[in-house]
Specification:
single chain; 422 residues; alpha/beta; UDP-n-acetylglucosamine1-carboxyvinyl-transferase, Chain; 2 domains; four-stranded mixed beta sheet; 25% strand
């Protein structure tokens, strides 16, 4: 198992390029199973989660070729004969559950293990299953697997309202509905860029989807989808992470390229309230750290609200702010495993229900700290880069799931991070 050894108090100066989005790529990968011809995805990050999902898809008999050199994956589903996603792979990442909608949508049958993923919070799949039932899919459980079956005449379609909104459930039902025999109407759908990109890609493949980007989607099932070359979006969470990392040291000045500022929603407004200077030009964002970080309280919300995947990073920045702040997560109410680890570095944080109360002006000092999930891991790296002395961040395999070559990118702009074996 790898760890990071991080020398602290290092300002960041220079240009850092954002990779393709993992969260946006995974639905596209599942959608490749729906096409009758080859599908090529470009701008795909080299990450453990991408490799894991490739293995899941290969289990079906789909041909998968991942070209690292040009960050592309070619899928050919013409050889699919197996409609199962096994536990030993699905347990590693929740997004493997997208196989349920894709397989039952194209082949009328799917047997998919209940998912795993980061070790925090109850994230039930009930909403996925209820939505699939509403469009005519038969669901039953069998020893930890979900078995989904279409009627002999095909999925008829139907109507469903998501409550609450859910990116994962929205994606699964869209995948199942685009080849249905009838019309599906979905209300209160997730409007995250990942969902919008999926709908646009499916439309490019021949799907009939009305209302893309809105809270109501109308999907008229079509007989088939054709293969296409599809470009994946830049990673908005990586963008936000580098923006926040770039304002923790008063001498930092960072330019972030290959991104899409429009995908950041209200995060940009709250970021400016910290006192940081920000300039946006096309796909480039430049940030300059303030002399004094202003305390800004945030509450996570569905898009375009503040992303839950950036709340740990925001809390870390607020430990250095000049005053108190409160970070509230309404999406996942116990996503605070990073708090005791930041405390080991000298930060003053207190969890109350689904909020973290942060006392700023912390004097961070080195320690050995342990990550427990993807976003918590990067928040600890950010803190260690701004702590006096040399820290160790253990179990960085979490980072390898979602940040492409993190230490290489950060070291190129001034960080001092060494990867070593624990």
């Amino acid at each position: 198992m790898d760890k990071f050894i991080i020398e602290g108090k290092t300002p960041l100066k220079g240009t850092i390029a954002v990779s393709g989005s993992k969260n946006a790529a995974l639905p596209l990968m599942a959608a490749s199973l729906l096409a009758e011809g080859p599908v090529k995805l470009t701008n795909i990050p080299i990450l453990d989660d991408i490799h894991t999902f490739n293995k899941v898809i290969k289990e079906t008999g789909c041909k998968v070729e991942f070209n690292h050199a040009d960050r592309s994956i070619l899928f050919d589903a013409s050889g699919v004969t197996q409609y199962i996603a096994p536990y030993e792979l699905v347990r590693k990442m929740r997004a493997s559950f997208y196989m349920l909608g894709a397989l039952v949508g194209r082949y009328g049958y799917a047997k998919v293990s209940l998912p795993g993923g980061c070790a925090w919070g109850p994230r039930p799949v009930n909403l996925h299953l209820e939505a699939l039932k509403a469009i005519g899919v038969k669901i039953k459980m069998d020893n930890g697997y979900v078995i989904a079956e279409a009627p002999p005449s095909g999925i008829p379609g139907g109507e469903f309202t998501f409550n609450p909104r859910s990116v994962g459930a929205t994606v699964n039902v869209i995948l199942a509905a685009v080849l249905a025999k009838g019309k599906t109407v979905l209300h209160n759908v997730a409007q995250e860029p990942d969902v919008v990109q999926l709908c646009q890609a499916l439309a490019q493949m021949g799907a009939d989807i009305q209302g893309i980007g809105k809270s109501k989607l109308t999907i008229n099932g079509v007989n088939s989808l054709k293969g296409q070359t599809l470009r994946n979006a830049p990673d908005r969470i990586e963008t936000g992470t580098y923006m926040l990392a770039g304002i923790m040291n008063p001498d930092s000045h960072v330019t972030i390229t290959n991104t899409d500022p429009d995908d950041l929603g209200h995060f940009l407004e709250q970021f400016e309230q910290t006192g940081a200077l920000m300039n946006i030009s096309g796909t480039t964002i430049t940030v300059k750290a303030p002399e004094i970080i202003q305390p800004v309280s945030i509450t996570t919300d569905v898009y375009p609200g503040f992303p839950t995947d950036l709340q740990a990073q925001w809390a870390t920045v607020m430990t250095l702010a000049d005053g108190k702040s409160v970070i509230t997560d309404t999406i996942y109410t116990d996503r605070f495993s990073y708090v005791p680890e930041l405390g080991r570095l000298g930060a003053q944080l207190d969890v109350k229900l689904n909020s973290v109360h942060v006392n700023g002006n912390s004097q961070l000092t080195s320690a050995s700290i342990m990550s427990t999930d993807l976003r918590a891991s990067v928040s600890l790296v950010m803190a260690a880069m701004n702590a006096e002395g040399t820290s160790e961040v253990l179990r960085v395999y979490h980072l390898d799931r979602g940040y492409e070559f993190l230490e290489t990118k950060l070291n190129a702009i001034g960080a001092k991070i060494t990867r070593a074996k624990e």
